[in-house]
């Protein structure tokens, strides 16, 4: 059935028009002058059999009505804010309330699909439990992915974020919402458990019972009305009701506010993945996605809902610290940049900044290093990870610190002082043959001449030259005791930068680092070296 439907879609794309009358009705509403950012509301109702099975029946073999598939395109214009994904979710929340007002809502990204038919039974066990259902806002499943290459070179599995950390959250008030694979109790999006926020019209109330047919004119008219771009003006939507506005990471922001209101959540991690999805297959797309997250997290961290201050008052210290761990994620760029450049420039100038190998403080550094990495590895391995994937996760942590964390922090700072920056952009997960082949072979894809790659390339160049200088001095018999810890650190970074060196000098394919990035990075690295020689 899937292959037949796929062929029909491809046929429509090749032909440029739709033969089926009902499906054509949707596209006929898009007239000349409509654009992505300027168009009226479009709502089209079809049922499962008409779309998937291509029949005219609306009942199954036992006479029960089949599920409805409802296409919704909310109204947009250039003068009204649309609040990105959070705004789209709120429109769907209102339209679904008008049509069915079902008490359970599943939010799912468009690249995710169901992988286990037992998932609904699992969540109903929780939502039907009288001991917890009164305060249960949502049930979150971990995001898992198909199509990952064998070693997950870009660490897109996010094992700590999607599997390890939620287990810790689950021991407190529950995990945060991660944007997909999450079942919400509709009531949770209308105020706290004991402090409900009534909607502006009774038809949107979680307790409202829909008594009219879904295709009645009255229902459709109201659905179009609540999907309008000006409907939310002077209402609580985005502040006290629905998915929350004010951050590019609406998932994090919404669950944080729900937990502050007194709701709890649950983490459900069955052996068989409930949902599977796609991952970006180029480094630029991975870093762009992370940069957007960094900006969104800072928007929450430096708002009046700061997790350390506001959160500790309403959730308790431990839960506020758990959310703060994510909110201040981007500041990892500071220690990563420090350890990627300062010891290296000091070594180039024969200056020691760490304890000597014979000093007691040396062992403290070794203990902290091995302890931190050891704990991280144990958590990763117990969650089903492999040694190679863990190593790639550490490499990507360093790469993110030198690129998206840094640029995300700078972009948020510029945005805060009123300087215009690039707008919201979606993460591309489209498959290109060349990209797919290189990704499948575990080869890094740089290709795009982005400023994101400049600090990373600089770090690779400076670390390589400082390591070679230190190694040469050691082979000549020079006393390197005072620089031993710096050599160990630099060697560790050089090992992590091997894909960068290959992309600079050894590769001839289209995925190598663009020449202009290499030239700029080399020039700035030399300038850094001469500047450091004046300081040391």
From TrEMBL:
The keyword Membrane applies. SUPFAM superfamilies: Nucleotide-diphospho-sugar transferases (SSF53448). Keywords: Cell wall biogenesis/degradation, Glycosyltransferase, Membrane, Transferase, Transmembrane, Transmembrane helix. It is a multi-pass membrane protein. GO terms for molecular function: cellulose synthase (UDP-forming) activity. One of its GO terms (cellular component) is membrane. It holds the Pfam family Cellulose_synt. This is Cellulose synthase-like protein G3. The chain crosses the membrane at residues 323-342, 362-385, 397-414, 452-475, 487-507, 513-531. Mn(2+) binds at residues 85, 109. The keyword Translocase does not apply. InterPro entries: Cellulose_synth, Nucleotide-diphossugar_trans. It is found in: Endomembrane system. GO terms for biological process: cell wall organization; cellulose biosynthetic process.
